[in-house]
Amino acid sequence: MKKQFMLCFVLTLSFVLAACGSNTSKTSGDGDSKSSYPESNIVMVAPSGAGGGWDLTARAVSKVMSETGLVDKAITVENRAGGGGAVFMAEFATKEANNDYMLMAKSPPILVNNLKAEGNSPYGYKDTKPLAQLTRDYGAIVVKADSPYNSLTEILDAIKEDPSSITLAGGSAPGSMDHLIGILPAFKYGIDPKTVKYVSYDGGGEAVAALLGGNADMIATDASAIGEYVKSGDVKVLAVSSTERLTGVLEDVPTFQELGIDAEFTIWRGIFGPKNMSDEAYEYWTKKLAEMVETDEWKTELERNGWASEYRDAEEFTAFLEEQEKVIGDLLKALDMHK
Amino acid sequence: MSTIQYLFDGFAVALQWHNLLFAFIGVVIGTAVGVLPGIGPMSGVALLIPVTATLTSGMPTDAAAASSIILLAGVYYGAMYGGSTTSILLNTPGESSSVVTALDGYQMAQKGRAGAALSIAAIGSFVAGIIALLGLVLLAKPLSNLALEFGPAEYFSLMLLGLCAVSGLAGKSMTKALMMTVFGLMLGTIGIDAVSGIARFTYDIPVLYGGLEFLTIAVGLFALGEVFKTILERDSGDAPIAKINRILPTKQDLKDSAKPITRGSLLGFFIGVLPGAGATLASFFSYMTEKKISKNPDSFGKGNIAGVAGPESANNAASGGAMIPLLTLGIPGSGTTAILMGALIMYNVQPGPLLFDDHPEIAWGLIASMFIGNLVLLILNMPLVRVFAKIIQTPKKYLLPIIITISFFGVYAVQYTTFDLYLLLACGVLGYLLSKNDYPVAPIVLALVLGPMIENNMRRALTISNGDWSIFVTSPLSLVFLIIAAAWIIVPLILKFTGKKVIVNEEE
């Protein structure tokens, strides 16, 4: 008898604990008094582990906002990893849709995840309120320093001739960002993108390791992350996905367009609010973010992280997202990966 | 000669009073982080990044970077020391790398040898930390090149070897162990497949996209399973509590542990150097090696001190080894090193091939501080053993709710989803049912870790070779691993067949 009682007790206790978790996350938010927003602390979510682009963006914004005193309430950064951002996205679009005190930092995967057939996230940017684009980065096509290929067209010709001879690697799953950056020029060069051999690794770092170790012939990665290897002479960058030449270490690298390949890809990063954000909160954040990008502190953060500044306000950002959704959609269709 | 010169310069940085303080704070927090399940080194380091940024804000950039990385790295290897504590005392692994420590450590504690287990874990970690650091100082460059040689084919064969060695985790029946391995492999297929991007067994539920969290499963199977078992089988916990005879290990303990510690350190260090392999794998490999070469393999799982000494040394050495690809190549081998890298980048210091040239004071200051940090940890941990060991004497009616609370808190702190709490409960019930029927649970956990790695690397290798399977035998390293893997399974069978009396896990 005593046994059963104890078991019941433990199970009940466990369920109570489990239930606690689901009820705590949303209590703040429905504040209805006017113009006093924000009344409590704000949570900015990076839907990935710490250290990645979303995380660094969220932390930079939080830091600058508090250092400059633009926002007097604390902005805490939370990491909610899972499913390449899809797990938190579902929560953000549903459970947190009315929570004025929760923001999210995100980049092209918000579009890619929503469009691709596999591992699809049913929620896209339309289930949020885009507030501002803050930075941009570009994709880069990289080979090892002793690679026989010295230009993008050379390696694309090699793929055209025999797709099995060249291995492309990237730090994310097929159909996601690195893959798209890698096959975009091939696609525009007239190669059937499905024939390009793509090997995915867990993160850009492992992809670089594969390149240096000779386990990949070329990789697609973020332009900002590759500079160090260029300086050390381990790799050469064949092309970047920007429309104009980059500055710094990569200033000698041609763009896709210079090489006669009509393609571009911007890795933008921006801040999103929940779908049903109140007008008051919406205005507050669009204004504050616009002010923030003008501050010296923000410029220091940009420099420290090696980001290029590209500010778009809420309206421009939404229009840009619409346009990008089409670009990415076309590419996924060509790959047969569109949902 | 220049290496020694650099190392002395590094000590000059590390011995500045504020850096000593940072190292001290780092390892203390790290120990706490390691003790608490759920708050792993990864979240611990991530949480402290903003704190260190504030602490160091007044300093020049390079000095600030050195100081904060000293603190953050302290958290990292401090957690490796602390991770064993709850494994040994409560059968609740604090980190995934301490899962195997629970196998023998908890049994030792049950027999009143918690003190010996805890001290040997601390001593082993210290020795391993020092060996790994020596390796880091002397072998950083050649090893980083060797790590790059490891392509998908080599990883596949290495992981396959790990899976073949799973027999080392079997209890009485090899068949049951293999069944559990397959079950773990099946669980490992849930989630978005990293190679094709296709979602498998997710039923369009986003929470499954990332797969099942390893820690949730491990804590459920081990800790909650044990809680249920205690409640159901020992009748509310009036069972006699094992007396703690002595805190310090005996001479015999030290003698028995010396070789496992050395082997674990070397093994852990080399596995740590490989990006993506990590401390968890290192501790598993070490445990299985110890069991394999032991004269008395039956005593494993029943409180053999080598089963604590080996893995605990290995996971600490692995964290030292993981610094090599991070510092020399800018390639983080694990989640935690990825965050350390993020922290360095925040200070505009890019880890990578140029780090030792551009910022020698940071790289060498960090290395020197790790020597000091390891020493602090040993001094700190030995007296703490006495305190921790008392936990085991807590009456069960207080201890069980504490374990449940820690388990739920820990899992929620990692995953933030209620789904994982239900999963935790389910695994607890499963863990109880399995161990009641003599099914070993450790193979599930190992297969869950190794399964996706084996699969992804096999498919990467085959993509590279255009579907040609010979890639696994034409690479010499890969071939060696495959031969060892085959020998692991076949040799005992042959010996048995020829009628020799051998030490295998007899079918019963």
From TrEMBL, chain A:
Signal peptide as annotated in the record: 1-18
Q: Which UniProt keywords apply?
A: Signal
Question: A single Pfam family, by name?
Answer: TctC
Which PROSITE patterns does the annotation name?
Answer: PROKAR_LIPOPROTEIN
Q: What CDD domains does this protein map onto? A: PBP2_Bug_TTT (cd07012)
What is stated as this protein's family in its record?
Answer: Belongs to the UPF0065 (bug) family.
Q: Which protein is depicted?
A: Tripartite tricarboxylate transporter substrate binding protein
Q: Which organism is it from?
A: Ureibacillus galli
UniProtKB/TrEMBL annotation, chain B:
Which positions are tagged coiled coil? none
Q: Does the keyword Membrane apply?
A: yes
Is this entry keyworded Thylakoid? no
Top-rank taxon of the source lineage equals: Bacteria
Q: Where is the DUF112 domain?
A: 20-446
Q: Which Pfam families match?
A: TctA
Listed transmembrane segments: 20-51, 63-83, 116-140, 177-195, 207-225, 266-287, 326-350, 362-386, 398-419, 439-457, 469-491
Q: Which UniProt keywords apply?
A: Membrane, Transmembrane, Transmembrane helix
Name listed for the protein in its UniProt record: Tripartite tricarboxylate transporter permease
Its source organism is Ureibacillus galli
